[in-house]
Specification:
TIM Barrel, three-stranded antiparallel beta sheet, 16 strands, 20% strand
Length: 375
């Protein structure tokens, strides 16, 4: 049974279309992973996520360790059984959430001591504990524990965080390998850090390659630096990572971000945007994001997106969805989210087809021309 095998089926410029074969299924790349932070992709059922075209979802170490607890999830059969999802799951290491959500955070070489945002209890998340939690959850792609600092931090601070992240990557890999049962059946990715500094990014890539991982993530972007700066980093960062391994851009992003990153050689993405936007009344469409709270949709009998084949667009009107959103009905969040997840997965399928057919540049140009500002 296949543990992890990445194959590239077609290239177009720097973009690649391929597949990751794992024991729980095949992940077509470029891939978008809907975010199931706390054991659920918010407002949609697992079968709806799969029907939209998702081959893999993301769970989060930080949130699940606090509630309901990794040990409890393990006793209940693991995250797949717990949430009713039988395809691959990638788990974030928890590093980003520790830094962004927790009060009274203290960093040391051992790990990060933090105060829970839920009840104020104190915890230590170290590379060893992060990998252990991901093992208890039954993660298929485990992420190494890393340290994130703002892109606005000084180069000295960024360098120190990157170097510590590389030391933590060694410990993460060793802990993953020590559990032969989970380690031999699943995969682990390292995370490149270095903010927007090309030299630090290259040094981080070299350190990760020396350790050796099944795949490599590009971390520390999509944290407020803007698309132009992110793309400038992606002009060089992915190329420093092994060409025969998947490249995962963490926390990205807007549809135009994804298209640009695919053009620069990225294979995997995750972001809360399609689900969060769905819950707040924003729909993604082929001509740009649509604000369903806008009164002009109150009597519009057309679908969210005439070009979309999702069940929502096939059945319900903008007028009805406008009513649900304005009335704060739960069904509104459900239908809007289902459409958004479908839109993102359709975009990935279209990107894969464009790469395979050698027409990515034309597809990307047409997509950007049609995709306008919020309406």
């Amino acid at each position: 049974m296949t543990r992890f095998a990445f194959s590239i089926h077609a290239t177009c410029g720097r973009a690649r279309a391929g597949a990751i074969a794992m024991r729980r299924g095949t992940i077509r790349t470029p891939a978008f992973m809907p975010v199931g932070t706390a054991g659920t992709v918010k407002a949609v059922r697992p079968d709806e996520v799969a029907a939209a075209g998702a081959d893999i979802i993301l769970g989060n170490t930080y949130h699940l360790m606090l509630r309901p607890g990794a040990e409890r999830v393990a006793r209940l059969g693991g995250l797949h059984a717990f949430m009713g999802w039988d395809r691959p799951i990638l788990t974030d290491s928890g590093g980003y959430q520790v830094m962004s959500l927790s009060d009274l955070t203290r960093r040391s070489e051992e790990g990060v001591s933090f105060k829970s945002h839920l009840d104020g209890s104190r915890h230590l998340l170290s590379p060893e504990r992060s990998i252990e939690i991901q093992r208890l959850l039954g993660s298929n792609i485990v992420m190494a524990f890393d340290e994130l600092v703002p892109t606005t931090a000084t180069r000295e601070v960024q360098a120190a965080a990157m170097e510590r992240s590389m030391r933590w990557a060694v410990r993460s890999r060793a802990t993953f390998d020590a559990d032969e049962g989970h380690g031999q059946a699943n995969a682990i990715f390292g995370i490149q850090q270095g903010a927007l500094d090309e030299g630090l990014r290259h040094a981080s890539a070299d350190a990760l390659i020396a350790i050796g991982f099944d795949g490599y993530a590009i971390g520390g972007l999509a944290v407020g630096e803007g698309q132009e700066a992110m793309f400038a980093c992606l002009d060089h960062a992915p190329g420093r990572l092994p060409a025969d391994r998947p490249r995962y851009l963490m926390g990205v992003g807007k549809p135009t971000d994804i298209v640009g990153a695919v053009e620069r050689g990225v294979d995997m993405f995750d972001c809360v945007m399609p689900t969060r936007s769905g819950r707040t009344g924003q729909a993604f469409t082929s001509s740009g994001p649509l604000n369903l709270r806008n009164a002009r949709h109150a009597e519009d009998t057309g679908p969210l997106d005439a070009a979309c084949s999702c069940p929502v667009c096939a059945r319900w009107s903008r007028a009805y969805l406008h009513h649900l959103v304005r009335s704060q009905e739960i069904l509104g969040a459900m239908l809007m989210t289902q459409h958004n997840v479908w839109f993102y997965e359709t975009l990935m399928a279209d990107l894969r087809s464009a790469i395979a057919d050698g027409r990515l540049a034309a597809f990307a140009s047409d997509f950007r021309a049609r995709y306008s500002a919020d309406r």
